[in-house]
Amino acid sequence: MSNTDNDLAPVAAVVVLAAGGGTRMKSSTSKLLHEVAGKSMLSYSVSAAAALAPEHLVVVVGHLREQVTGHLEQLSETVTTAVQEDQLGTGHAVACGLDGLGDFEGDVVVTYADVPMLTGDTLRQLVAVHRAHHNSVTVLTARVDDPSGYGRILRDGDGITGIVEHKDATDEQRAIDEINSGIYVFDAVTLREGLASLTTDNAQGEQYLTDVLTFAHGDNRRVGAHLIEDVWQTEGVNDRVQLARMNLEMNRRIRDAWMLAGVTMVDPASTWIDVDVDLARDVTLHPGVILQGATTVGEGAIIGPNTTLMNVEVGAGAEVIRTHGSFAVIGEGASVGPFAYLRPGTELGRKGKIGTFVETKNAVIGAGAKVPHLTYAGDAVIDEGVNIGAGTIFANYDGVNKSTSHVGRDAFVGSNTVLVAPVDIGPGALVGAGSTVTDDVPAGSLALARGRQRNIDGWMVERRPDSKAAAAAADHDGSIHPAVQESRDKKKA
Ligand code: UD1
Ligand code: CA
User: Residue with the nearest Cα to atom 27 of ligand 1?
Assistant: First the structure.
């Protein structure tokens, strides 16, 4: 962005057209709420408009307007809406937008709410060109391979004489490949006078905003164009095929920007990154990584393959493999997965571990603590240095209420334990494998909460004498397997 762009004085108004039906989406959700790279199309148009610091930012709503207005309220407090009851054309839509604003002078920018790639910078350039040439209208144009359907730009030498809609164009005019993006800057007075002059005498019986340019030219006011090379910035989305194409292109741009900023992507084509994601240098993304929402990844972290993270904060040097996570924090140097499911409220401390087939929810796991295998940790507070054995379940729900359990620092929970919440396991305690813990365990105690083992000698030979098992038992000399004997000796030593 040049300095003159930075110094651009605010425009009087931006009118964003958002009243159309969007019928080709075949959706009960407004087209404008469909998302590109994790944000609604509407939000892109509002952000781009806001870059002009307009005195008025009006969105013209009509079709599904409760949805559109509701979403706008979440996006911005400075946006106002105007209602276009019946869609009588783009000229009529702009007139509706201006209706509530009273009389004012200055520049009025018109954009569409379904053109997500259009940037604030482009709008600022458009306004700068408009002002530099003292135009009464300046239209943003592009040259495209297939101009069919678009309005064509009619030029006479350097100037613009008007725009003709595809349906109204002659064959000769249809051969023109410079198209109207539908994005303009108008001098407010010219716009008002031009709108007042509109008729519906055209192929679609609509009030064409484009006829304001013909009006201005006819009245010897300067009409200019700003041709943009990046055609994507003028592309609208009308159906889900175009939506998918838009997402692909947006994602390609996001990926390229991150790779140039120092992120390694093993397979860019299978990597999807929302527009608000933030990545540090030397992050590595393996194939099949989807980073959504406000996810952030710290320096040197390794994500994937096949990992989806939504609103997750990943610390520097962490490793997250084959994991699905949302609203979670993964500490520096921590390790997650493969096959982990991190649900909202999961916080894994520095160098902690959430391993294979582990599900966590509302689980605060301290530095260096390990939950390595086959565990459900819901409503759990696990302090630093704790080891949670394989198959441990934090039974947090009794069918009516959810309760929290706590495991103190450096405690050890044996495999296949059920902690029936709320229980408090003290620091340095040891819970024997297979326990069902219903009472608190004091610090440093050994808790055994399981039935004692009972062996009935000779049972198989007596009860199932003809079985293979009985034969195997009869063949055995009664010794302990050497691998077990070895471990036992080690444990004793
Ligand atoms: C319009 C332009 C055309 C341009 C094209 C670019 C006119 C007459 N034609 O054609 O020159 O090449 O955009 O995409 O302006 N809308 C309303 N209310 C209405 C009509 C439209 O809000 O009464 C909104 C729609 O929601 C849409 C935008 O205006 O976002 C464009 O309307 P659309 O009917 O798609 O115009 P095009 O025929 O594509
Ligand atoms: Ca259109």
Answer: 20
- Mapped onto helix, strand or coil, the DSSP state of residue 59 is strand
Q: Binning pLDDT at 50, 70 and 90, where does residue 21 land? A: confident
For the segment 70-93, the average pLDDT, to the nearest whole number, is 95
- Give the class (CATH, top level) of 240-447: mainly beta
Residue that is written with structure tokens 């109204």 in the block: 168
Please indicate whether the domains covering 13-234 and 240-447 agree at the CATH topology level. no
* Per-residue pLDDT tens digits for 150-181: 999 999 987 899 999 999 999 999 999 999 99
pTM of the prediction? Answer: 0.93
Give the 3-state secondary structure of residue 403. Answer: coil
Ligand 1 center from residue 483 Cα (angstroms): 78
Determine contact, residues 415/431, Cβ cutoff 8 Å. no
Q: Token pair for residue 274?
A: 């929302």
Check 373, 406, 476, 481 and give the catalytic one. 373
Q: What is the DSSP letter of 408?
A: -
> Which residues have beta carbons under 5 A from ligand 2 (an ion)?
236
Does ligand 1 have an atom closer than 6 angstroms to the CB of 208?
Answer: yes
Ligand 1 atom closest to 165 (CA):
11
Mean pLDDT of 292-299: 98
Here the tokens at position 169 are 């164009």
Domain 13-234 in this protein, CATH class = alpha beta
Token duo for residue 267: 């397979």
CA of 50 from ligand 2 middle (Å) equals: 22
**Range 212-217, long-range pairs (CB < 8 A, 24+ positions):** 212/91, 212/137, 212/186, 213/137, 213/139, 213/160, 213/162, 213/163, 214/161, 214/162, 214/163, 215/190, 216/136, 216/137, 216/190, 217/159, 217/160, 217/161, 217/162
Q: Which of 388, 380, 383, 392 is nearest to 427 (CA)?
A: 383
pLDDT of residue 6: 60
The per-residue pLDDT for 279 is 99
Write the CB contacts of 298 (distance below 8 Å, at least 6 apart in sequence): 280, 283, 314, 315, 316, 317, 318, 332
DSSP annotation string for 83-108: E-SS---HHHHHHHHHHTT-S--SEE
- Residue 3 confidence (pLDDT): 44
- State yes or no: is 34 an active-site residue: no
What ranges do the domains of the chain cover?
13-234, 240-447
Indicate whether residue 97 lines ligand 1 (CB < 6 A). no
